[in-house]
Amino acid sequence: xxxxxxxxxxxxxxxxxxxxxxxxxxxxxxxxxxxxxxxxxxxxxxxxxxxxxxxxxxxxxxxxxxxxxxxxxxxxxxxxxxxxxxxxxxxxxxxxxxxxxxxxxxxxxxxxxxxxxxxxxxxxxxxxxxxxxxxxxxxxxxxxxxxxxxxxxxxxxxxxxxxxxxxxxxxxxxxxxxxxxxxxxxxxxxxxxxxxxxxxxxxxxxxxxxxxxxxxxxxxxxxxxxxxxxxxxxxxxxxxxxxxxxxxxxxxxxxxxxxxxxxxxxxxxxxxxxxxxxxxxxxxxxxxxxxxxxxxxxxxxxxxxxxxxxxxx
Length: 313
Known about the structure:
It holds the Pfam family Inositol_P. Its cofactor is Mg(2+). Belongs to the inositol monophosphatase superfamily. One of its GO terms (molecular function) is metal ion binding. The structure is a single chain. This protein is α+β, with helices and mostly antiparallel strands and 313 residues long. The chain has 2 domains: 139 residues, Fructose-1,6-Bisphosphatase, Chain A, domain 1; 148 residues, 3-Layer(aba) Sandwich (D-Maltodextrin-Binding Protein, domain 2), CATH 3.40.190.80. It contains 9 helices and 14 strands. The strands form 3 sheets. It has a 7-stranded mixed β-sheet, with helices on both faces. Strands 11-10-12-14-13 form a 5-stranded mixed β-sheet, sandwiched between helices. It has a two-stranded antiparallel ribbon with strand order 1-2. A hairpin with a 2-residue loop joins strand 1 and strand 2. The C terminus is likely disordered.
């Protein structure tokens, strides 16, 4: 039943997300029978992804036939492409978890208006958790207002991430970045669904998040949840225009600044000198190596870029 408190477009997105969640939950009862195919190395898609995406698109276009669709599996072939209103959809974020029966996955739906995300829904069907946000109206979990955590000391913070695993990913570089964060925090987690990772930052369950290789449908909805919950989101150098840059950092404002200080030199937008210094410290493949003290010191001295980013960007 539509909530009278939600923006009308958000109500439609909630309806779509719940319909997709019902399909996912039914399939989860008999995962062994779900057909799985591989898009590329370690990138799986199931018939459940497709069925979930179809019901989301149908629900959205039934209400708003003039809106455009940008979805993970079907791309930009549905709706009225060129519209100012674009629905950005990940029908099942965490497919690898899903096909193993590991209950960390979700449906992610965002509405961008003239390139800016205005509405967001992330639905976790295993826990029946519904995260929602409308720009300027705050972020909610099951209609209860949520805020990012208040922790400021990195040593006490829980940070989530994802591991690169596709052809072309610089695995050694990511290991260096991960080692640096790992040694300075209370813990690093890798749940396996970036949209939920961002929702958990918004809810204060984790204090920060970083990952590379993400697509817009992985981060669009979650990024609005984070900013509406009082947090910051950007790329590794702290720039707020990150949606299509394949690198994302999020956290409460203090943690965000500290993560950017550490991660900026690992960004593809880092200064040439920083990139060279990082490359020199990398071990020859396939050794893993330890981060050098010089790099750690440089990271501490780096400016907390992005800390003045307005919370509504």
